[in-house]
Specification:
Helix content: 40-55%
Number of strands: 0
Number of helices: 6
Largest sheet: none
Shape: globular
Radius of gyration: 18 Å
Order of helices and strands: HHHHHH
CATH architecture of one domain: Orthogonal Bundle
CATH class of one domain: Mainly Alpha
CATH topology of one domain: Hyaluronidase domain-like
Distance between the termini: 53 Å
Length: 196
């Protein structure tokens, strides 16, 4: 009988322990790799955006996708499409940086489409009207109202219009003739005005 050894986490569930590079690709056991994001972390929306921006700016979009995925799984139902769309943008950037231009472009477009409701609908041409003020941070209802002043769902100050434009432009560029893998750090989007 041929038994294959599987990596397991502390609860005994299958979990690949191989090190990974900055784009999330598995490396051989024993190779130096990039520390992986812990899974299942519950963060505030602001912490999620801050950590994801740090990872995107460092050229680690695969790891940023894991941060968005945690928010998608743990956040309110009304925000799941926001976090799922952002995770798809990060994975699209990952694929484009790895050289999978077709998959990258598809995921970038899919993520942009998922974000449409968070900017007032698919025909809206600009980003969010405003961020919640410091005084309204004590109330989720106030934050949701300020974030969705343009009629969309709460987006926590994320520049949804800018991100959808970025994703569509990058998708078109990576599908172009002779397209090569991109530099994930150089192409990283800004999630909010002023971030980088």
């Amino acid at each position: 009988m041929d038994e294959t050894r599987r990596d397991r986490d502390t609860e005994g569930r299958a979990h690949n322990a191989r090190p990974r590079d900055g784009l999330g690709r598995p490396l051989p056991y024993g190779s130096p790799g990039v520390e992986r994001q812990p899974e299942g972390v519950v963060r505030s929306p602001q912490e999620t955006v801050r950590e994801a921006q740090r990872l995107l700016s460092a050229g680690m979009p695969f790891h940023a996708h894991e941060v968005f995925e945690d928010a998608w799984k743990s956040g309110p139902v009304a925000e799941r499409e926001l976090w799922r769309g952002l995770a798809q943008l990060a994975v699209g950037l990952t694929h484009a940086a790895r050289g999978n231009v077709t998959g990258g472009a598809r995921l970038l477009r899919r993520g942009a489409a998922a974000l449409a409701e968070f900017r007032g609908g698919p025909d809206a041409s600009d980003g969010l009207a405003s961020e919640a003020s410091e005084t309204s941070e004590t109330s989720e209802a106030s934050e949701a109202s300020a974030d969705s002043a343009d009629g969309g769902a709460p987006a926590h100050g994320i520049d949804v219009g800018g991100l959808t434009g970025w994703a569509r432009e990058l998708a078109g560029r990576v599908e172009g003739p002779g397209a090569e893998p991109i530099d994930a750090a150089a192409e990283a989007p800004r999630l909010r005005d002023g971030d980088r």
